[in-house]
Write a structure and sequence with these properties.
Number of domains: 1
Shape: globular
Low-confidence stretches: none
Distance between the termini: 69 Å
Helix content: over 70%
Order of helices and strands: HHHHHHHHH
Largest sheet: none
Structural class: mainly alpha
Number of strands: 0
Mean pLDDT: 90
């Protein structure tokens, strides 16, 4: 029994779509990313609030301004790389975006763009840490936490079991666009806090979030219906449909309660 369990564990450890994942930090094993996501959840729901219970909110204005600038540069850089290889260079067949073969001349580029995008999703977790340290607990919603934790854990398993890039390159392109706009808004709001309420375009960032998930949803449906011979894994197509639908619902619900319902009450 012990030998059998050991054999299964070894098989699982060897189950990789791309041997490159054994060579890079946080992709070589599921344990670091699992521990990271667990620590994130424990901190924001238990350890952090307990630590802040008898403390005043920290003034993190300057730190957050720097963080927002870094995020704009980070997301903007990934966007430019993804835009070039996806829409200009023609690295992928848009009708069926499968991960590049291991011997493809641009495989290393695909791998490292995927990796820096994955690391950016970990960097994003600081958003929630800042909320806790500032005691902005109302911003720690189910949508916020699920979206952040899911992106980290989802990205790990996709890269580990499927490989880099492929159909998810569209996600990277859209996600970095939205995040650049989002952190640009946060930077302006933090730089001029008295004018925060006058930044009328805040709600359009939420609309952009919804639109990006609509793009993912349509992408999978179009491939399934019009290109059934595409070798992108069927399970992952349905997973993309499920996650996209769920996120459209969650962001749509947030938009309704944040922007439509309050307006209805004042009419």
């Amino acid at each position: 029994m012990h030998a059998s369990n050991s054999s299964l564990f070894n098989m699982f450890e060897l189950w990789r779509a791309d041997p490159w994942t054994t060579e890079v930090y946080l992709l070589n094993s599921p344990w670091p990313v699992t521990c990271l996501c667990t620590a994130y959840l424990l901190f924001i729901y238990k350890i952090g609030p307990e630590f802040m219970k008898h403390r005043k909110p920290y003034n993190l204005r300057n730190i957050i301004l720097i963080y927002n600038i870094c995020q704009m540069i980070y997301n903007g850089s990934i966007f430019l790389m993804a835009f070039y290889y996806l829409l200009i260079d023609g690295t992928y067949d848009i009708t069926c975006m499968h991960t590049l073969s291991l011997d493809h001349p641009k495989k290393s580029i695909e791998r490292w763009i995927t990796y820096i995008f994955f690391m950016n999703k970990i960097f994003d977790l600081l958003d929630t840490i800042f909320f806790v340290l500032r005691k902005s607990y109302k911003q720690i919603t189910v949508l916020h936490v699920y979206h952040h934790a899911m992106m980290v854990y989802f990205m790990y398993w996709v890269t580990r079991l499927y490989g880099a890039g492929g159909q998810y390159a569209v996600m990277g392109l859209c996600n970095t666009t939205v995040h650049f706009l989002m952190y640009f808004y946060y930077f302006n709001a933090g730089l001029r806090p008295k004018m925060k309420m006058n930044l009328w375009w805040k709600k359009y960032i939420t609309i952009a979030q919804i639109v990006q998930f609509m793009i993912y949803l349509v992408q999978s449906i179009v491939v399934l219906v019009f290109n059934p011979t595409c070798q992108f894994p069927l399970f992952m197509q349905w997973q993309q449909i499920f996650q996209s639908t769920l996120m459209i619902f969650l962001f749509g619900n947030f938009y309704y309660h944040a922007y439509i319902k309050p307006k209805q009450k004042t009419e």
